[in-house]
Amino acid sequence: MRGILRHLDSLGVVNKFDSFVLYYHTKSLKSNHTVKHYLESGEPIKALLNFRHRFRQSSSFIDSFSVLFAIRALSAPKASSFDGTQIHATVRKLGFNTVIQIQTSLVGFYSAAGNVDDARQVFDETSDKQSIILWTAMVSAYNENDRSVEAIELFQRMEAEKMELDEVIVTVALSACADLGAVQMGERIYSCGVKRKRRLARDLTLRNSLLNMYVKSGEAEKARKLFDETKRKDVTTYTSMIFGYALNGQAQESLELFNKMKTIDQCQDIVITPNDVTFIGVLMACSHGGLVEEGKQYFKSMIVDYNLKPRAAHFGCMVDLLCRAGHLKDAHEFINQMPIKPNTVIWRTLLSACSLHGNVELGEEVQRRIFELDDDHVGDYVALSNIYASKGMWDEKRKMRDRVRKRRVPGKSWIELGSIITEFVSGHDDDDEQLVVGEISEALRCLVSCMTSFHCVVEDFNCNY
């Protein structure tokens, strides 16, 4: 490279400053290629070490592509020990915080790490917010970290600022509505999106998201209506509807739809092959319907007929199927024969069944297995103490309760009223919460008074509830 520069300089094509810039630009390109190679080879640690070495040599070797590669390396599981804030500081120092692609990548990185507030800080400090990708990344960050109310609020701000919508951001917003059960809000978002861009009405992914929202919100009839109106269906469309029936206890309808799915679709003239997610819905339907033998057959068919490898979710469905039917011994044997290590969810399914059926001996063994994986979950202590209580073993119950080291995480619920979603959290006792409780109690008193005036029977109303 130096030889080429000397030759160009002798010809008068470049001056010394141009040579200097070209040299460092070429050096940066070569280094970026090295980092990219490490990433593609599955070696993110080496990629980050190379980035750090180059930065210490000279910041001139670092460009926006170098930073993007470094953020991508940080997102790899093997690189969790590296501090992403160092890269963030480098971005600010080099003035790259005006590059939308870098800011969007940082939002994604912080979101994956569970640092949503840091992701929001990156979003807020980005001066040019005209990129739909940046907004989508931030709304997704809230949604993926169980902060769906804030996801909807940010989406509404986006609408207010007349930002251009696309199918991706609308899909993410619908996912947030599904988590909250905010059906009216989701329908409004979908309608507004279609109204702004007519082509969105034909987007199958978007329709599937709306269907998924209906399913998660328990709106089985609306889900089926949308399903029937969707002429072009794919495996996700069928899977969502199968889940919808399964979650609503309509096992027979779920299995009938699964069988229909495997036949030739006359409208599309294709056969839709179920995937592993489809079988989770099918097994869930069998579990909720108490169809033990059918569930075993479908589990076997998944492996033999479709060559699908069961995941933890499938094994969990089978354990749930056996536990709901009261076959605790079979469930225990099934877990012990699993080809993968059972997780806490699977063991807790069996522990819950032991609590329901009062099986002390098996419950104690299951809890020991859970404690090997996680000994700090309050619900495990409560479940076993309930088993002891059901058998009148009060000393054991008291000892188990005394072992609880922390309180349960407060439960949450949401109420949708028009365009407003209000979040309620149990377990708070500060002044603001007491004020809200007082307002609710006053509203209840008024309702009871009105009902009584119309000769309605009101039983066991306690204003101190």
UniProtKB/TrEMBL annotation:
<protein>
    <recommendedName>
        <fullName>DYW domain-containing protein</fullName>
    </recommendedName>
</protein>
<dbReference type="InterPro" id="IPR011990">
    <property type="entry name" value="TPR-like_helical_dom_sf"/>
</dbReference>
<dbReference type="InterPro" id="IPR046848">
    <property type="entry name" value="E_motif"/>
</dbReference>
<dbReference type="Pfam" id="PF01535">
    <property type="entry name" value="PPR"/>
</dbReference>
<dbReference type="GO" id="GO:0009451">
    <property type="term" value="P:RNA modification"/>
</dbReference>
<feature type="repeat" description="PPR">
    <location>
        <begin position="203"/>
        <end position="237"/>
    </location>
</feature>
<dbReference type="InterPro" id="IPR046960">
    <property type="entry name" value="PPR_At4g14850-like_plant"/>
</dbReference>
<feature type="repeat" description="PPR">
    <location>
        <begin position="131"/>
        <end position="165"/>
    </location>
</feature>
<dbReference type="Pfam" id="PF20431">
    <property type="entry name" value="E_motif"/>
</dbReference>
<dbReference type="GO" id="GO:0003723">
    <property type="term" value="F:RNA binding"/>
</dbReference>
<keyword id="KW-0677">Repeat</keyword>
<dbReference type="InterPro" id="IPR002885">
    <property type="entry name" value="PPR_rpt"/>
</dbReference>
